[in-house]
Amino acid sequence: MSTHAAARNATPTRRDQILKEAARLFAERGFHGVGVDEIGAAVGISGPGIYRHFAGKDAMLAELLVGISGRLLAGGKRRVTEVSGPPEAVLDSLIEGHIDFALDDRPLITLHDRELDRLRDSDRKLVRQLQRQYVELWVEIVRKVYPGLAEADARAAVHAVFGLLNSTPHLGRPGALPGRAATAALLHRLARGAFAAATDSAQPAANSAQAATDSGHER
User: Fold this and answer.
1) Measured by CB atoms within 10 angstroms of the end CB, which terminus of the chain is less buried, N or C?
2) CB-hemisphere CA count at 13 Å for 33?
């Protein structure tokens, strides 16, 4: 069972419920379009009751964005450590973990895109730091799977795959998708295809260089 699957089956705490509804409402209406009273009503408590758990909306936003960045990194490290088999198996596991996030935490993707700049500097820097570590974790594995891929190209490919997987908020409402398993399988194929294409794109350049060398030898 994946980490996200285990989390889905766990009983959420009141704090978890507040964060989940805050993420949904912030994503739907924007950070400034949602009041504390609305978040409280969504979880069945009074607005002032929210302050027993959080100092305010800014604290919720910071915990949401710093929290998901930390969980992605921790989950990625765990998969790299625990998955046995060739690098391909590790890469597949990393892709599966990110797909779980992309399908289960779609509001957080929207929230990150729209509201990251609202975080105070220290929190925003922490998010970026965690994200960079997560990217480099992938880059290392991708280059083991595709050893001919230059580091800069591998990093660009990882960012491109994240963009692809994180497109889920634009795929329509969950009910409009072909089903979670089918969507996850499609996203997985697309991700592996993108990495393979990154490797293929380097081939013509290599062939051209070889052709130029051969041509030079013929003169």
Assistant:
1) C
2) 11
Sole residue written with tokens 């041509």: 215
User: Where in the chain is CATH 1.10.10.60?
Assistant: 12-54
**Alpha-carbon distance 165 to 39, whole Å?**
28
In tens, the pLDDT along 65-102 reads 999 999 999 999 999 999 989 999 999 999 999 999 99
Per-residue pLDDT at 24 exceeds 60: yes
pLDDT one-digit tens code per residue, 171-180:
876 566 678 8
User: What's the topology of domain 12-54?
Assistant: Arc Repressor Mutant, subunit A (1.10.10)
CATH number of 57-202: 1.10.357.10
pLDDT digits over 42-73, tens only? 999 988 899 999 999 999 999 999 999 999 99
Q: Are 34 and 25 in contact (CB under 8 A)?
A: yes
Identify the H or E element spanning 196: helix 180-218
Name the phi and psi angles at 15, rounded to 5.
-60, -45
